[in-house]
Structure formats: C-alpha cells, structure tokens
Amino acid sequence: MAKPVSYLGIDLSPDSIKLVELVSENGRPKLITYGYTESKSDILKGDFISNKNLTSTLMKELADRSGVTTNLASAALPVASVFTSVIKLPNLIKKDVDNKSKIKGLLAEELKKISAVPLQDMVFDFNLIPDSEVEKAASGAKISTARFLITASTKDVVRNYVDIFKQANFQLTNLDIESFSLVRSLVGIDKSLIMLIDIGENLTSVEIVNLAIPIINRSINYGGSVITKAVADSLNIAISEAENYKLDLAIMMQQENMTNFPKPIEDGLAPLVTEIKYLLQTYYEQFGQDKILDKIILTGGGALLGNFLDKYLSEQLNVRTYIGDPWARVIYPEELRPVLWEIGPRFAVALGLAMRDII
Q: How many domains, the chain?
C-alpha cells in the first residue's frame, strides 16, 4: 500500500464523532481539517455499534462537510471494549524477549487462563513494560521476570468497526486503543508517572501511564451527566436547567469571586475523586511506590468544567493537574488558537490517531 499523503483519525466516542486530518511537515503534524458531530442521547444514544447505518451516514456526512481528502482512516477501541492485563513471564533469556513471535505464543497460553472469552474469538497485542533488568541484560542473559501489558478485544467488536468504516467508504488502516492514542497526543515522550482522565458525557476513562505506556486502564460509568443530575437533585431543578447551570458556571464563579466549586458541583465530583484515589492505590499495590504520581492530565468534554476542574483536583489530590493540550505539537493557523483550545480536550483521541504514523 502506498504511503498516504495525509493521516486521518476518527474517534467514535459515545457522545460524538470527531475527526482530525493531518499531514507531516518536516516531521511535525500539520492540521488540514477537523470536525465533529454531536450525537447526545437523541441521535446515537451513546451506542454507535448498534446503529451502524446511522453511524456510517453521520461519519460520511462529517467527512464531506469537513473537506477530508483521504479515505484511509485510523480508529480507536474504547477502554470499555478492551481487556487489559499485566502478565509476568519468568525465567526468560534476553534474546527471547526480543522474539515477538515466541513471546506472543507464551502470552497466548497465559491469556487463556485469565480471559473469559475463548482465545480463538479474540485479537490481542502486547507491549513490554520497561524494566532496568531487561534493558541492561546481555543477549544470552537470564531474566528473572519480564512484564508485558496485554490488550485484547473480541473479533466481533473489531469486525463491527471495520463494517462501519467500510459502509462510510473508508478503509480502516489501524485500530488503535484509546489509551494509546491519548498518550500519543497528550504525553508524548514524557517518562514520568502520569494519570490521564478522559471525562465524557456518560463514561470516564482513567489511565495510569509510566514510561509513556498506559499500565492500568479503567472505564467508569461517570461523566458530565452525573454532575448534571447531582446539580438538578441538589437545587431541585430540571435537567435542562442544570445543564445551563454548568454552562454558566465559569462566569458565575468569576463574578462572585468564588475560590471553590459550589456544593452541588462538589457532590457531583465526589465519585470521580474516589475512583482516582482507588486506582492510584491499586497501582501502588501492584508496582510499588518507587515512582510517585507526578501529574494528572485532564481531557474530554468535561475537562473544562467551570474552567476550574484542574485547580480543584490539584487541591483535592495534592497532585499537579493540567488541562491537556493535544494541539501542542501540531502546526496550525494562529487565528485558530482560541477555538482549538476550547475544543482541544474533545479531540485528544482523534489527534492521537492521526499522529500515529507521523511522530
């Protein structure tokens, strides 16, 4: 297959479809076009896989409206559709660690023991988790334990994605995993211990990333809708009014010189804070505390809540927290900076997909 002149990433998230097309300019990604289709509950109802015809139609319309120039595209499986596990292989020789075919066979046998889905119905990939013993070992040296991150999904899920893209007249060239796309666009080569939090309308994914590899991934039934309901219940108002309350939150906090979220918002955020603490504790129990969490990066549509969520989580968790900027390494017209910053958290996955073969 000839190398494409541009790279298209399409993110089918539960609450919208987003796309980004990039080209490579001197090794740096350059923006060609972008676009999104809001789906909310009245269009896709958060389930694009069960609405193949509608999803493919919306995708094609979005591509046409955005002026996409290629029919080759990359997509990403959501964390909720992916089985991940860290598998330890003992007593390997260093040269065996570099033998991908042999390692895949060994991991397949281990995967059979822990997966509820038969191996023949799955596709899986793996990454070696960096370790000083493995890195320093000579080719013939014996390694006590090597750890591998396994990511697997069912063939049916993969087939559904291929069908949707084919129906929209796209050739699906890569099927990535959201967590890897987020690392690509938001983390890059940063080797520190980082937590990525992608807050959607109904789902939030939390990843702990070490040495630029997402080691632990968790998808939770939490998102902007939970906060909206907490506001509605607390203030005894309709959901639509609670949505407006959230939209006006930043202005209200600025006008009233508020230094913290109103209680209804704090109540809505409490489950997220609890999940973050739980996942971090899980990581420390599995991998030790030789390396302490350095920062939290927020992304997704809920990341800009009140223009204050990063500060709030910094205070609650005592960890530096930032709004991720997936456009940081992308070349784009300066006049687009304000709008790209506003929509940036929503486009992190699509950008990471488009960057796959550029950086």
A: 3
Range of the domain at 303: 219-321
The reply to whether 330 and 181 lie within a common domain is yes
**What are the pLDDT digits (tens) for 160-173?**
999 999 999 999 99
- pTM confidence score: 0.90
Residues 88 and 171 occupy one common structural domain: no
- Does any domain span residue 144? yes
pLDDT, mean of residues 54-60: 90
| Token pair in block for residue 179 | 């967590």
> Do 313 and 223 share a structural domain?
yes
194-199 vs 204-210, strand pairing mode = antiparallel
Q: Scanning the structure block, which residue is given the tokens 């809505």?
A: 268
Q: For residue 206, is it within any domain?
A: no
